Amino acid sequence: MKKNKKLKRLVLGFLGIAVFLGIWQLAGTLGWVSTKILASPTDVVATFIDKLTNPKPDGSTLPQHIWASLKLALIGFGAACVIGIPLGLTMGFFKGMDHFFNPLFEIIRPIPPLAWIPVILLILGIGTTAKAFIIFVAAFVPCLLNSYVGIKRTRTTLINVAKTSGATDMQIFFKVGLPSALPMVFTGVKVSLGTSWATLVAAEMLSSSVGLGYMIQRGRTIVRSDIIIVGMLTIGVIGAILVFLLSLLEKKIAPWRNKK
Amino acid sequence: MPEDKVIVNNLTKKFGDLLVLDDVSFTIGKGEFVCLVGPTGCGKTTFLNLLVKLIEPTAGEILIDGEPADPKRHSLSFVFQEPSAFPWLTVEDNIKFNLRIKKFPKNVIEERTEQMLKLVGLTQQRKLYPHQLSVSAEQRIVIARSFAMFPDLLLMDEPYGQMDIKLRYYLEDEVLRIWRETGSTVIFITHNIEEAVYLSQRCLVMSSKPTTVKTIRTIDLPYPRNVADPAFISIRQEITDMIKWW
Ligand SMILES: Nc1ncnc2c1ncn2[C@@H]1O[C@H](COP(=O)(O)OP(=O)(O)O)[C@@H](O)[C@H]1O
Ligand SMILES: [Mg+2]
Questions:
Q1: Ligand closest to the CA atom of residue B43
Q2: Residues of chain A with pLDDT > 70: what percent?
Q3: Could you tell me if the CB of B20 is within 6 A of ligand 1?
Q4: Are A152 and A183 found together in one domain?
Q5: A254 and B87: CB-CB below 8 Å?
Q6: I need a surface site. Which of A23, A159, B141, B235 has the fewest CB within 10 A?
Q7: pLDDT for A202-244, tens place per residue?
Q8: Are B187 and B48 in contact (CB under 8 A)?
């Protein structure tokens, strides 16, 4: 019964992708869209295989692009987690922290990540640091916000259990607030990861010579839609893989959520 | 006359304009088992929250061993009315929670945990998480967690409300046993009069809001009590009559 359902779901999922690819391929062969403007799936696959080892025409092989982008995204995203999660948790738990940081955060929060680009360029120039910083800014807000809301939602009764058994504020923070917030912290981290990956293209527009964002840009300049699409799909697939890895980590760290 | 464990002096609590407890005074002796009965919303939970300093009184005072409650020094256990097992801890880690906070020695923690798992019949389920169990099993975790402390002062807020009769009778006998063996003071809130008469040495009957203590009925029947005993039935009837107008 259950296995059957799973299989059905899998088949439908593949079918969805296959139909999409089929229409895309037909659009080219039937001449709905010129294959010059929109490369067909078979072209894209050929380009993908070729780009695995061939640095032409954009200067680097696909693995080099991936590695450059991954490094950038992970630095920005990593920094956002390392700073955003503890800050969000302490702000959500300790009143003093909340009162100190909240007004500042409320002003910074609505500024779109891309609006940071000019000032970052002025201060940091156009190197790796600047690009990582833009990703950091984009990833930081969901990390902080979810940790903040997550720990604030800790049930009062559970805090009271700890309080009446003589726990200190620190013990309550680590033994009640933190585990109670964990599911939402993970939600924040997942959103952050998505955001940082998405901001990548924008960050790599700032004069790069390597990276998936750069590859897409380059593809547009030299009118090679196959390269653009290979870049886009690579971003999509790697994003999905990263989120999947995070879910595995979540199951490891917060095992009480999925057991039924 | 034993020493006083809990002293309540002219205790008044208002939430905004809502007067909940109105100048309440009474004492509870060391080692006593007291039941609190009263209509829903009369302030029973509020009283326990005041007692352990989760909230502050509007006027008056409430003392444990002659001083304001301090959970860091006093050995107390609180079974809350709402479900309060930690969802992220397994059954056994839930039971160990208070013992670990109070820094009991490792071997004591292990020994008590085994004992309590057996007592509430969850030894098989020790590695499971609360949401994998029934509501009544979750409440058994909470009861095991608070019994495990062998606390000086055990506070129970309608702990057996959600349970079937068989389990309730069993856990009523267990709380009596823990009380006798550890010499703790127990304040037990219930709206089940039979339960109150079965358990307590004294039963505090509270009025509806604004709340005062209407009567304190001493119940000097020997333990274990028999719910079919005519003396038992007459006390139960007496208290029931007192609160007929609920
Ligand atoms: N934090 C609070 N703020 C406002 N009103 C409250 C609060 N806590 C309890 N009350 C009110 O005080 C009254 C007593 O509540 P409670 O002590 O929970 O009653 P009981 O436990 O006897 O059923 C109720 O009318 C309730 O609505
Ligand atoms: Mg109540």
A1: 1
A2: 98
A3: yes
A4: yes
A5: no
A6: A23
A7: 788 776 788 998 998 888 888 888 999 999 999 989 988 998 9
A8: yes
- What is the distance in A from the centroid of ligand 2 to the CA of B157? 7
Query: Binning pLDDT at 50, 70 and 90, where does residue B103 land?
Result: very high
- State the pLDDT confidence band at B212, using cuts at 50, 70 and 90: confident
CA of B43 relative to ligand 1 center, distance in Å: 6
Q: What pLDDT does residue B13 have?
A: 95
> Considering only CA atoms, which of B181, B205, B182 is closest in space to residue B193?
B205
pTM: 0.87
* CATH at B62: 3.40.50.300
Question: A236 and A137 in one domain?
Answer: yes
Q: Is residue B80 part of a domain?
A: no
In testing the pocket of ligand 1, which one of B20, B204, B211 has its CB within 8 Å of the most ligand atoms?
B20
Nearest to B150 by CA among B126, B177, B118: B177
Q: What's the rounded Cα separation, in Å, for the pair B146 and A161? A: 10
Q: Which residues constitute the domain of residue A86?
A: 40-258
- How far, in Å, is the centroid of ligand 2 from the Cα of B198? 20
Residues in chain B whose Cβ is within 8 Å of chain A: 52, 54, 71-74, 76-78, 80, 82-84, 86-89, 97-98, 101-102, 128-129, 131-132, 149
Residues A109 and A236 in one domain: yes
Q: What is the pLDDT of residue A120?
A: 87
Range of B98's domain?
A: 85-150
Query: Could you give the CA distance from residue A238 to residue A70 in angstroms, rounded to a whole number?
Result: 9
* B173 pLDDT higher than 60: yes
Angle ∠(B188,B189,B195) on CA atoms, nearest 5: 80
Residue A105 has pLDDT above 70, yes or no: yes
